[in-house]
Structures are given as C-alpha cells and as structure tokens.
User: What shape does this take?
Amino acid sequence: MMKRLRVLVLSHPGILPIYRVKFEQLALHKDLDIHLVTPRQWFEGEQSVSFKQLPGARCPAFPCPIRYSGYESRFFYTSGLKSHFQKFRPHVIHLEEEPWSFCALQTWWLRRRFCPSASLILRTSLSFWMRQRFGILPRWIEALVLRDIDFAFPLSRAAGETLERKGYTGPWEPMPNGVDVERFVKKDVSDLRRRLRLGDAFVIGYVGRLLWMKGVDLLIEACARLDGDWQLLLVGSGEEKAKLQQLALQLGIAERICWAGSVSGEDVPDYLNCMDALVLPSRTTSDWVEFFGRVLIEGMAAEVPVIGANSGQIPKVIADAGLIFEEENILDLQDKLRQLMDSPERRRCLSQRGYTRAHTYYSWEHIARRTREIYWMCGRGKN
Assistant: This one.
C-alpha cells in the first residue's frame, strides 16, 4: 500500500494567495505530496497579477509561463508543464479549469501521454446557461475531456446536474468555494472609514466587477429610495462604471457613493469591515448566472450581514444566514435594506448566523478535509 499519494494540481486561480490556502491545508497531511502548477502571471479583472510565494509555504507551487493570460478558455502553458507529468508521476491529477478550455485539452493529452493510470479530477463552475456561448471546438474539447474524468468537483449541485446533461456519467460531489476564516474576520477599520469619508453613516457595500449582470444599477436605484443617513461603498471596477456614475447623478445621490475602485485581495477584508450590509444584486442573463458569489461567504466570515438576489446559487449560499430579495425587484431590495437599517438586533442576528455558516460549511480547512478523502478514494491502488 502506498504511503504517500502524489497529487498534481493545475489551477489558474492558484496564482492568488487566497486560493492557495486550501492546498496549504492539504499539505498539512503527511500522506499527501502535492505539487501546484499555476500561471506565472494572470490578468485578473483590470489588473495584471504576478505569482508570489507565500511566506512559509508548505505546498510546493510552480509558476509557469502561459499564452492568452486572462482568457480562461484560451490560455495554455507554454513551458514547464510536461516535466510535472513526466517526472512527478502523479497518482491523481486535479484540474481546476473548465472542461472546454485549451488548458483542459493540454492536461488531457499530457495525462494520456505520460501517466495514463493517474486519476483525473475536474473542478468546474459551469452552469447550464453557458452552453449557448460554445462553438464547435470548445464542445469537442469538452466532450473529449468529460469522457476521461474519474471524479468531478462541481461548484454546486446545479453545476453537477449540468455536467450530467452534457454527458458526464461519472461520480461527482459539490465542492463550494472556501474562505480563509483567519483573514476574513471582524476588526476595527476606523482609519479606513475616515479615509473613505464614510463618517457614522449606515454603509451599504458591494464588492465585485461593475458589470451589467452584477446588478449594481439596481442597488443604486434601491439606495436612492432610502431616507436616513446612509452611504454606498462600491469596491471594484468595470465597463459599467461611467453609466453607473451617470445614474447616480440623475438620481441625485452621487455625493453618497464612494467609488473605491479595485483593491487587492489582501485588502478586501478591511473594506468589508467598513460595511454594515453587503449586497450581491446579480441578475440572470441569457448566457450567464451567478454560480456562487464568493464575496458572500467572505462577508459572512467577517460578520457582515449579507443581502442577495434570488439569482443562480445565491439563495443556497446564503440560506438563512442573510436576506434574499426577488431578482431585479428594486422595491424588494429597498425593503431588505430598510430592515437592516432599522434593526441593529436583526443585523446582530444575521451577523452571527453568517459567521457560523461560513465556519461550518465554507472554511478551507473543512473543504480540504473532504478533498483529501476524495483524493484517496480516486488514487488508492494507483501505480
């Protein structure tokens, strides 16, 4: 019986330290030998991100050059990847890319060429609506890859059911995103609040891209209907910013909005702690749906009450640990905001529920523990 299971992970999100926490947790287990391959650079949002080694890292990480940075479907590794298949000889290959991507095709070929006995585990966040964007080549790649997958980690049950509709017949188990509960904590950020000129107002917040499908316009319109002392803190950037600023001017609330712009992942916990309520007002489109909403669990871990639209997986992520409003219903969103503004007790109750839910279901430690069990289930008996 093997003493250590060799696991090769390919993950472009792994370039971000917040995503490497899971693998750091996995590396604590002495029966696993994990190698993480990630791009050397990645274009995330409107920023270019370079790989940085974590101080005292336990999981060996290998940044490699790629082409088409920022394009999840088109990017592939240009050098350095083959040796990990050829020399490391993994028992398990854990691919955290979509099955229609060029990187998935690259992984599929290298596995067949150098370690065909290795189990292939796929992590995917695909949703049913994304099918409409596929061309012939992505569909061909997806069909090829799904035939050879031994186990799948869809982001949600809905994503797992989508895998089955696309022809996947193997075992799968929902594996949600996680949160670093040691970083996302409640803390004093008085200095940051002063710099942002938020004063003593009730701060309504949003963190994410400023895109139409994210529904930030709905949030601005709902806020415009509120009376009392409030401020809106928008953290992020995107193509809709100019339109949103114009909307705020038309509604006469421009002076109540703080446009923080994009911030580093390391700074997100501080900005969350400036908020009295965090809102994710996403809307479903013909080719997109909110398949998780990671910022929700980050807010919950930091004890910020959360409000989300009943779009995609948002209601299942929040459950009873926050408030849900009807998608695109501005009056319903206004009502949920008013509930939190008017009731400190309601805020305290939801803050505690969110904290408990984040720690119970979404901590990286919890997710890593179950991931390890699946690794051994798939890799036991491999040469």
